[in-house]
Each structure stands twice: as C-alpha cells, then as structure tokens.
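User: Last request for today: this protein with magnesium ion, please.
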Amino acid sequence: MFFQWLKQYLPRSLYARAALILIMPVVALQLLVTIVFIKRDLEDVTTQMTTTVLREVSLLRQQAGETADRDLYLHRLEPFLAPLTMTARFVAQDAPRPQDELGWDEFSGRVVRDKLRHELEGFVAVKFPVTREFLLYLDTPAGILELGVDRRRLTAAAPHQLIVTMVFFGFLMTVISFVYMRNQLRPIKKLADVAQAFGRGRNLPYSPRGATEVRVAGSAFLDMRGRIERQIEQRTLMLSGVSHDLRTPLTRLKLSLAMIDEDEAEPMLRDVSEMQALLDAFLDFSRGASTGEPEPVDPQKLAASVVEDWRRQNKDVMLGELSGAGTVPLRAQSMRRALENLISNAVRYGTRARVSVTLTEKSMRLRVEDDGPGIPAAQRGDAVRPFARLDPARNQDLGSGVGLGLAIVADIARAHGGMLRLGKSKELGGLQADIVIGR
Ligand SMILES: Nc1ncnc2c1ncn2[C@@H]1O[C@H](COP(=O)(O)OP(=O)(O)OP(=O)(O)O)[C@@H](O)[C@H]1O
Ligand SMILES: [Mg+2]
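Assistant: Here's the final one, the structure of the complex with magnesium ion:
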C-alpha cells in the first residue's frame, strides 16, 4: 500500500534509481550525524564553556563587592578584565532595561542563555550581536552592568566546519560512486537498447559486456536473436525456393496447354494462372517484412502517393484526415506494400476506402477504412493468420485471394515494432484497419 503510493514518485530510469539509492543513505547519515552532533557534543561543550564564564563572573562580582558607586565598581574590576579578555561598562540609568537578543540560528546561544538564566544570580539578559562579542547584562548594586565576553570563550569555534567538510566529502564520494555505478549500468542499458531495436526489426551490433549476470543475459539474447534470424531466413528460403522451383514446371504446363484445343484448355489454363498468382503471393510473403534498414519517411506523403496510385486506377479511394507532421523511421517499400494490401482489401470487400494518418509525439497511425461488411470481432484474429479467408460464401465472386494480405500487413507492422489493429469504422461502417507504430 505504502510502497504503491511511493512508487509514483520514484524515478523510472535505472540511472536515476541508482543515483537515489546512492544518495539516500549518504544524506540520511549526514542528517543523523549533524543532529546528534549539534544536540550532544555542541551542547555539552557549550555548557562546559559557559560554566567557566559563570565562575569568572562570580569572581568579578566578588571583587567588586557591594558598592553602589559605578566608578569604584569599575575600578575594582579593572585588574581582572584584561586577563579574562572581558570588557565592562554600566548601562545608562535612563536606558530601557536590556532584552534578550538571539538570532533564529543561535542554537548554541540559546543553550548559553538558558544556563546563565538558571545559574547566574541577577541575570538580566544576553545579546548575541553579529560581531564576535557576546554581551551579558547583570544586576549589581550600582545598576545594570554590561559585560562583553569574547564569543569564542563561550561556544565551540566554527562548529559547522565539521558539517561542511562532511557534506562536501559526502557529495564528492557520491559523485565518484555514481561514475563507477554508471559504468556498471551502461551494459544493461545497452542490452535494453539492442533488444528494443531488434523488436522493431533492427539489428544493432552488440557484444556482451559488464558484470557476469549482464553478460549471461547478453549472450542469451544473442543466442535468441541468432535463432530467430535463422528461422526467418529458413522460412524465406523454403518458401521462395518452393515457389521459384514450381514456376518452371508451371510455365512448361502453360506452354503445353497452349498447344491443346482452346475450349478444352480454358479451365486448365485458369487453374494454372491461379496457381501462378498463388505462387506470386507466396514469394511476396516469403520476401519478408524486414528487408533493408528503416529510414526517415514522411508517412503523409507516402499515404498520399499510394492513394494517388489507386485513384489513377479509377478506384474510390480518398485521403482522409492528416494530423501531426514529421518523419518516422520506416522501410518505405514494405510500408507501401502494407498500405496497398489494406486498400486492396477495402476496395475488394467494400466500394469506398479512406486513408488517414495520425502522427503524435510518440506514435504513428495509418488507418484504412471502408464501407464493406467489415469483420466481426470474433473473426479478426483468424483474418490475420496466413492463408486465412473468412466466410467463403460472403466473398465468393470477389475474385480469389490467397489469404495472405492481412498476414503480410501484420508482419510488416511487427517488423517496425508496431501492430495491426482491426476494428469497425465509425463513419464508413466497414472494416477499420490501423497500423500503429511507436516513434
Ligand atoms: N476490408 C475488409 N472487409 C471485410 N472483410 C475483409 C476485409 N479485409 C479482409 N477481410 C476478410 O479477411 C480475410 C483475409 O484477408 P486477407 O487480405 O488476409 O486475404 P485475402 O484478401 O482473402 O487475400 P489476399 O489479400 O492475399 O489476396 C479475407 O478473406 C476477408 O474475408
Ligand atoms: Mg487481401
């Protein structure tokens, strides 16, 4: 409960947390030492020193005796003042009675005052002016006497020196530790960056570094990355190999069919063409989404040019809302293919399509909407699977798709570290397909 509440105030990054963990104990320790030091030692020392001054004051009083004559009084004190480094004078008779004067930061001054007030007979007031003097006012038979005592005789000299030294070295040590700590954290940060980049389809160079555990995690990541890459490669090789190898016999078949009587060959030729289209789709799919390195692309321009291409083919495709501006690191070729696929679905299953682009600080969204029947929520997962075609009755005469279109789009979105999201278009009523990618 308590920690849950605390969590929202804690920094998120590893560096900041490490810094906090380093600094907290140092600050706590310094506070503790400062408080204990002031409370105990400073007070004790001050009390002891005040006792000494107290004794000296009683000695002076004894020497002065009970005379009410001010000059005589001062004369009697005279021989003792210099050795005790004190000064003495009387407060003018008509002057107001002196009051305590203590700055808010006079911690030790307060101790002195309390001690004197309790133990000094005839105590009137103390003053701690900014100068190095401390003034003590006493009732004597001759009037109120002002004794000036050197401040250093009462309280420890420059007690804050210890605290200043401690804070300074504490700070210095923390900085040094943080520099070392940072070197320890750097490999973790690097691993996180490389893993994130790989998730977004980019391969950054990386070699395990740092403490043993980080190295182990790093090597595990490299193994994993290698295995995933090998798998992608194998898939690509296999699919493209199969499709490529099948093309030659298909072409031969086509040629042979051309020799046969046309009426008889017609349906067979159609089958062969369909097989060829299928193979093309396979090849397309197997080429994969992650070819080439991403480069800064203006998604609005990309969308506009794709839409333009469709319009030239007299399809009802329009450019909807464009918000935000800027470039996003994309593989233009694959992103174009993804948009093409979505639009081709939209105009195949609907009649109108609308493409909109939303760019924010953190993400990019390419949206394709249509006025077709849409895909029921329960079937959206299936629709994205390779070779999945929904409800054949529904799109019987819409030409034969292979069922790879959405799978390719999802693949491309994932290779960019994003996702494909299907929904229902609010305005057009058909499918709404969003490609969402973090920037
Ligand atoms: N805009 C859409 N409106 C309604 N249904 C759709 C829409 N897009 C896709 N679907 C459904 O999802 C299924 C899968 O789509 P996908 O694009 O993956 O394959 P396809 O269009 O059948 O074939 P391909 O795109 O490979 O030629 C389609 O068969 C169709 O039933
Ligand atoms: Mg399709």
